[in-house]
Design brief:
The protein is mainly alpha-helical. The chain is 60% helix and 5% strand. Strands 1-6-7 form a three-stranded antiparallel beta sheet. A hairpin with a 4-residue loop joins strand 4 and strand 5. The longest helix has 51 residues. It starts with 5 loop residues before the first helix and ends in a 63-residue tail after the last strand. The C terminus is likely disordered.
């Protein structure tokens, strides 16, 4: 060894000596980086112990079932119960299932597998994962956290609504089964707003929300909904307070209970009169709809949100897995269960809607039959127009349709003045009820006709609470996990702080105009930002990190090579489909000015209103704020205004101790291959950036291990990311 080398100086001096990694490597004998680590004390290296040490005491799932239930609870949410059935009804029944299934295979499963794989491989939340894959696109993780925050703010309000209805269900008759009566002395009249609409609609808009006529009218806080929102955030906070160990146990109930309720509802629904009409309507395809691009756009959006892509929750949950977990199987299983749940929920919804449509159709027949009897008694209509088999005391829908046709033909010149309705069952089945209206209006109205209606109401809203809770736990994990990984804060304090902050911000959703803000956030705060986030995730892995390199690492991690189908979908098909979806969304936003359905009290009806200028400002601000981290982080790291976390380190020696000192060395410095044995000192949790040479190839750094005196150094296998750079 040279006389004046820094290593010689180190042996002869007690002073700190810092030397570059290039100097260190020049003095090293060739080593096998797969079988050695930086050895300070000279003790023998135990591979299993080192792998165990790399865990950094990171929480882990108690078992595989708990993890699968958590992913199912997160991906299967309220959208499966009301949005999927609504889109299926709106877009042609069975014809909608075809584009949905095609896009699930081309977009959903590959991107879901991608997020599971990067989370499990790198074992970090969304911020840490994308900082590693491509530091300049590290804003993806921050954008995901912001979108999770926006979605969590209004999503928990829906859980609050469900809590309100849940407690209102413990009475008979149900409070929304009849219109309230106003008594003025001896005179009793039905509430005009309820009389013009329906009992369930009135209860939802007036009793539950006490909604204002427009978004401009705040109306103050609804104190009952405020308490329900506080209860909702308390439940979420308690479920999250101890991390995945507690939330995983919650998942045993919250993930499985909705299936019990849905199956019970399906069995009960199929026994209802007219249920088969709803089921047939669901599976009767309108083939012309399959050629409509709008149907494909809405199917792609539903696939995108059904699996929770881009939120960071999928990555957060998978980051607690072991390295050898078969995430490929998990992706296929969870995607299938998600699709099965959507179909199951749709069967339940259409069975109930078929029953409701028959009830409403019979009501229509009775009301119009009374009109016809009045016209017969006043000689406006002749008795000769009534078919002989018609019996007004037992009038069927078929008899009424025949009578209606005869009257319309004979009295075609004056028919409109009679004010008769056709009372067609198909028309009732085609009445689309979207989102909250399906759960809090259509379903509640149907349940009033069920025997033992309070029991079914309690079960239904308890199911909604559980579905919402499962999704909220995943959404909160998408916020807390990356922050805990990056800033090393206490998860209990962070969870409590997030819940308190979210509750106070969420007060805008429990004022009398709060429902309009819920619709705004639901429609615009996540769609465009999340689409952009997932496109960049796909590009970061497939085009920047490298699809071949990623496939090779998956082969090492899983023990088998994933199908080439994923190679082509990640590299070509999914980015193109997602770009098309984003373009279509932007065009729709430009062509159709944003608006909302306002409930007008005097008219007792919904009216479509455009957002005022200040609301448009809020809407645009939500989109900009959610996407802002993407360009900001890119610029900061492109021009080296902040460290991207991939810089090298120098090593300082003193009397047999070794200490690392981060320094801004060149990107291609050899130090990116120096790996630490002590996980807590590791500057990055990810595998080494080694060039991919294809399957079966040998890295030029794979050399035989040779002892190197007291201070031996080498490279650790990429299967232990917690201790790698």
């Amino acid at each position: 060894m040279p006389k004046h080398s820094k290593v010689t100086q180190r042996e002869q001096s007690t002073e700190h000596v810092t030397e570059s990694v290039a100097d260190l490597l020049a003095l090293e004998e060739p080593v096998d980086y797969r079988q050695s680590v930086l050895n300070v004390a000279g003790e023998n290296w135990n591979k299993q112990q080192d792998v165990d040490d790399t865990g950094e005491d990171r929480p882990a799932w108690n078992n595989k079932l708990q993890y699968i239930l958590a992913q199912i609870g997160y991906s299967v949410g309220l959208g499966n119960v009301w949005r999927f059935p609504y889109l299926c009804q709106k877009n042609g029944g069975g014809a909608y299932l075809v584009p949905y299934l095609v896009l699930l295979i081309l977009i959903g499963i590959p991107l879901f597998f991608l997020e599971l794989a990067v989370g499990q491989r790198i074992r970090r939340g969304s911020i840490g994962v994308w900082n590693y894959v491509c530091p300049r696109l590290g804003g993806i993780g921050f954008a995901s956290c912001l979108v999770c925050l926006f979605v969590g703010l209004y999503y928990n309000v829906i859980i609050g609504w469900s809590i309100f209805y849940f407690f209102k269900s413990f009475q008979y008759p149900l409070p929304w089964s009849e219109c309230p009566v106003i008594r003025n002395g001896t005179v009793a009249t039905v509430e005009p707003e309820c009389d013009k609409s329906s009992a369930t609609t009135y209860f939802w808009y007036r009793d539950a929300l006490d909604i204002s006529d427009s978004i401009n009218e705040s109306g103050g806080l609804n104190w009952r909904m405020t308490l329900c929102l506080l209860a909702a955030w308390s439940i979420v906070g308690l479920a999250m307070i101890k991390g995945i160990q507690s939330s995983g146990k919650v998942m045993y109930f919250s993930s499985l209970f909705p299936y019990v309720v849905l199956i019970c509802f399906l069995v009960r629904g199929l026994l209802l009169r007219g249920a088969i009409d709803g089921i047939l309507h669901m599976f009767t395809p309108k083939l012309d709809k399959m050629l409509d691009l709008q149907v494909w756009r809405e199917a792609a959006t539903q696939v995108f949100f059904a699996l929770g892509l881009g939120f960071g929750g999928v990555i957060a949950f998978s980051s607690y897995n072991k390295q050898d977990n078969n995430c490929h199987f998990d992706a296929a299983l969870v995607s299938f269960i998600n699709f099965f749940t959507s179909i199951l929920a749709t069967l339940v919804v259409f069975a109930v809607l078929g029953f409701k449509a028959n009830v409403m159709n019979e009501k229509c027949v009775v009301e119009n039959a009374e009109k016809i009897l009045g016209y017969l008694n006043t000689d406006v209509l002749s008795h000769a127009l009534i078919p002989p088999q018609v019996n007004f005391s037992h009038l069927t829908a078929k008899d009424y349709t025949e009578m209606y046709g005869v009257i319309k033909t004979v009295k075609k010149d004056h028919f409109d003045k009679l004010g008769l309705d056709p009372c067609l069952l198909e028309d009732e089945l085609n009445k689309s009820v979207q989102g909250t209206g399906l759960a809090f209006i259509a379903f509640t109205e149907a349940m009033t006709h069920f025997p033992a209606s309070p029991f079914w109401s309690v079960m239904f809203f308890l199911m909604l609470i559980n579905l919402g809770l499962g999704s909220m736990i995943g959404t909160m994990a998408g916020i807390t996990t990356p922050i805990i990984d990056m800033f090393k804060v206490r998860k209990e304090a962070l969870t409590v702080g997030c819940c308190i902050f979210a509750f106070f911000v969420g007060l805008i959703f429990v004022q009398r105009s709060g429902n309009y803000f819920v619709n705004m956030f639901d429609d615009y705060s996540a769609t465009l930002p999340l689409t952009l986030v997932v496109i960049l995730e796909n590009i970061a892995v497939a085009w920047i990190y490298g699809t071949k390199k990623f496939m090779q690492e998956l082969t090492e991690m899983l023990g088998f090579r994933p199908y080439r189908f994923y190679f082509y979908t990640w590299k070509y098909i999914s980015p193109i489909c997602m770009a098309g979806l984003m373009t279509a969304s932007v065009i729709q936003l430009a062509v159709s000015p944003p608006g909302y359905n306002a409930w007008i009290r005097e008219e007792a009806a919904e009216k479509y209103l455009y957002y005022p200028k200040w609301a448009m400002g809020v809407l645009v601000s939500l989109i900009i704020l959610a996407t802002l981290p993407l360009p900001v982080v890119f610029i900061l790291r492109q021009f080296h205004l902040v460290s991207d976390g991939s810089n090298a380190l120098s090593v300082t020696y003193k009397k047999g101790r070794i200490m690392k000192d981060i320094s801004n060395l060149e990107d291609n410095d050899e130090t990116r291959f120096i790996l630490s044995k002590v996980p807590s000192e590791t500057p990055s949790p990810m595998p080494t950036h080694r060039s991919y040479l294809g399957p079966g190839s040998t890295s030029p750094m794979e050399m035989s291990s040779v002892a190197n005196g007291r201070y031996s150094s080498g490279y650790l296998t990429a299967t232990t990311p917690e201790s790698e750079l």
